[in-house]
C-alpha cells in the first residue's frame, strides 16, 4: 500500500481526484460464491477485502478454468498453492486490473472509497519476479514491454470523481441514550455509525476503519 500511495502522488485538494475515473464492470457474487466467502477464515477475509479480491473480475483468457486449475495444482510450487487455498477465489492468480470492490464500498461507505481517498488507482509495477521452488526471487522481468499500466480501481459505481459525500454524523454526546434504557439489544446505541453490507452482498463484513 505504501508503494502505491507514493506512486499516486500527493493527496488531491477537497476530495478531487488526480486521475480520471476508470470504469470497469462490477460483478455480483452468486449464492454459491457467497457461501465460499463465508467459509474463509476471518483473517483471510479481511486480507481479501484490503486487496480487492473478495469479488475479482477475471479477464478473458484462452485457458479454460479446468486447465488453469490443473496448472495451479500440478505446476505451481507448494508455497503458491498454500496461499492460493487460503482465499475465497485464490490469491496469486489475480492481476491488479482484475481486482474488484474496495472494503469501504462493500460496507456501504462509498464516501470512504479507497481510491477516492488515494486520489487515484493502485498502479502495479511493470515488472514481475522469477522465483525458485522455495519462493525466493532469482530474477526480474518486464511484464508489459510497451509500458501499459495494470491498475486496480474500485469497481463500485459510486461517483469517485465528485466531491466526497458527507459521512454519517457522530451522535451528540449529550443526546446519547444508555443502551438498556433505549431498549437496544445488539450493542449499538441510537445514531451510532454501524456500516451495513449492501443488499445482496451478504458475504461481506463491515469496513476495516
Give an overview in words.
The structure is a single chain. This protein is of the alpha+beta class and 209 residues long. It is 26% helix and 8% strand. The chain contains eight helices and four strands. It is globular. The two termini are 15 Å apart. The N terminus and C terminus are likely disordered.
Mean pLDDT: 73
Strand content: 5-15%
Which secondary-structure class do the elements indicate?
Answer: alpha+beta
Rg estimate, integer Å? 20 Å
General shape = globular
User: What is the terminal separation in angstroms?
Assistant: 15 Å
Tally of helical runs: 8
Give the strand tally: 4
The spatial strand order of the largest sheet comes to 1-4
DSSP helix fraction: 25-40%
Compressed to H and E, one letter per element, the order equals: HHHHHHHEEEEH
Uncertain segments are 1-8, 173-209
Main sheet attributes: strand count, strand direction, barrel closure? 2 strands, antiparallel
Structure characteristics:
209 residues, alpha+beta, two-stranded antiparallel sheet, 8 helices, 4 strands, 26% helix, globular, disordered N terminus
In short:
This protein is an alpha+beta fold. It is 26% helix and 8% strand. It has a two-stranded antiparallel sheet with strand order 1-4. It has a two-stranded antiparallel sheet with strand order 2-3.
Amino acid at each position: 500500500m505504501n508503494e502505491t500511495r507514493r506512486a499516486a502522488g500527493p493527496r488531491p485538494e477537497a476530495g478531487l481526484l488526480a486521475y480520471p475515473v476508470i470504469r470497469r464492470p462490477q460483478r455480483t457474487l452468486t449464492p454459491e460464491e457467497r457461501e465460499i466467502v463465508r467459509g474463509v477464515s476471518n483473517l483471510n477475509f479481511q486480507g481479501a477485502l484490503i486487496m480487492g479480491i473478495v469479488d475479482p473480475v477475471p479477464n478473458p483468457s484462452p485457458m479454460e478454468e479446468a486447465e488453469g486449475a490443473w496448472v495451479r495444482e500440478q505446476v505451481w510450487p507448494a508455497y503458491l498453492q498454500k496461499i492460493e487455498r487460503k482465499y475465497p477465489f485464490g490469491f496469486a492468480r489475480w492481476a491488479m486490473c482484475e481486482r474488484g470492490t474496495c472494503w469501504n464500498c462493500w460496507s456501504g461507505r462509498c464516501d470512504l472509497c479507497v481510491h477516492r481517498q488515494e486520489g487515484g488507482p493502485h498502479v502495479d509495477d511493470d515488472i514481475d519476479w522469477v522465483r525458485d521452488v522455495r519462493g525466493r526471487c532469482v530474477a526480474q522481468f518486464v511484464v508489459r514491454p510497451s509500458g501499459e499500466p495494470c491498475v486496480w480501481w474500485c469497481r463500485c459505481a459510486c461517483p469517485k470523481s465528485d466531491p466526497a459525500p458527507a459521512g454519517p454524523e457522530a451522535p451528540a454526546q449529550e443526546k446519547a441514550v444508555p443502551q438498556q434504557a433505549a431498549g437496544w439489544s445488539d450493542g449499538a446505541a441510537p445514531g451510532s455509525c454501524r456500516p451495513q453490507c449492501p443488499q445482496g452482498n451478504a458475504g461481506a463484513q463491515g469496513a476495516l476503519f
